[in-house]
Amino acid sequence: MTSSLLTVGLPMALAIIMFGLGLSLTVDDFRRIGQDPKPVAIALGAQVLVLPAICFGLVVAFDLDPLLAVGMMLLAASPGGTTANLLSHLFRGDVALNVTLTAVNSMIAVVTLPLVVNLSVEYFDPEGAGDVGLQFAKTLQVFAIVLVPVAIGMVVRRSAPGFADGAEKPVRIASAVVLALVICGALLAERDNLADYLTDIGPAAVVFCVCSLTLGYLLPRLAGVDERQSLSSAFEVGIHNSTLAIAVAISVLDSEALAVPPAVYGVLMFPLALIAGFVIRRLHHPAGQRLPADS
Fold first, then answer.
1. Contact 168, 20 (CB under 8 A)
2. How far apart are CA 154 and CA 22, in angstroms?
3. Between vectors from CA 237 to CA 5 and to CA 56, what angle results, nearest 5°?
4. Phi-psi category of 272—alpha, beta or left, where left has phi over 0 and alpha has psi -120 to 50?
5. Residue 292: what are its φ and ψ, rounded to 5°?
6. What is the dihedral of CA 143, 145, 148, 150, to 10 degrees?
7. How far is CA 290 from the centre of its chain?
8. What is the rounded CA–CA span in Å between residue 108 and residue 231?
9. For position 179, what pLDDT does the model report?
10. What is the average pLDDT across 6-10?
11. Beta-carbon neighbour count of residue 235 at 10 Å?
């Protein structure tokens, strides 16, 4: 991976994505938790507690290399990605719920991500484990790269809402472009080992993504949450902020191998999420039945 991508491109990519999230946020997004806490609590519980447990079981079952196992756990601990908002809009889910979940989970991840990574390093004990963990100084880096761009975006939205509305779509497009570049860069950096990594990571990533999407949809439905919010929850739980996971792996933990699992997942999650969206909508709205308008 080129030094320019490491030192400039990767942090810039993450900053653009998190700034774009901030542009879409208002204080009301956080107030919504108190107004309708059940779908938020269920989705956050799935993301913060259940997904790392499922991922741990998968990496043990697939007997992954210790570094790749830690990379998978890093992915599982990363918050939902902003692309979940776009998928939710496409399939007429509750986009406001996605925005709230992405924002809240991004803040929670400042605490939970270092915790999960450090516990994973201690358990799997990869080579050079002493340099891999997220100590206090590195945890502060995670805090800065996650929350500072979001805070700036929120300030811009509050002070210049017209500009924020106009900039939101271009920033989303830029986010998608830089996400693709970052994933390609991460995979290119490990191109000599890529075939082996894909063989090792591919099946585990597919199973993890399918489990995440299924869990994200079924848990809310079983708890009586309506279809639109359950669909949004599925995308939120199934779509991870791969750029954040890659940035932490490379820029903070200085390990390109750790970035491979989130990069592979970042490629696979989109077609799987699209398939899930079509399947769920078809189950509830057969062909010929008019879909309800998005609100």
1. yes
2. 5
3. 80
4. alpha
5. -70, 150
6. -110
7. 31
8. 22
9. 64
10. 60
11. 34
Mean pLDDT of the chain: 81
Backbone angles phi, psi at 134, to 5 degrees: -95, 90
SS3 292: coil
96 and 29 Cβ atoms separated by less than 8 Å: yes
Q: How far apart are CA 108 and CA 98, in angstroms?
A: 15
Residue 200: other Cβ atoms inside 10 A: 20
Q: In this predicted structure, what is the pLDDT of residue 133?
A: 61
In sequence order, which residues have a C-beta less than 8 Å from that of residue 285 and are 6 or more positions away?
Answer: 291
For the chain, how many residues are written? 295
136: Cβ–Cβ under 8 A, 6 or more apart, which residues?
none
pLDDT value of position 236:
92
Amino acid at 134: L
CA distance 12 to 2: 15
The DSSP-derived string for 109-142 is HHHHHHHHHHHHHHHH--TTHHHHS--HHHHHHH
Mean pLDDT of 161-187: 73
Inter-residue contact 84 to 239 (CB < 8 Å)? yes
CA atoms within 13 A on the CB side of 37: 1
User: Contact, 237 vs 212, CB < 8 A?
Assistant: yes
Point out which residues pair with 80 in neighbouring strands.
240
Q: Tell the residue number behind the tokens 């919504």, with chain if given.
A: 32
Q: What are phi and psi of 80, to 5 degrees?
A: -65, 150
From the list 1, 23, 13, the residue with the least C-alpha distance to 243 is: 13
Residues 257-277 pLDDT 10s: 888 899 889 888 888 999 999
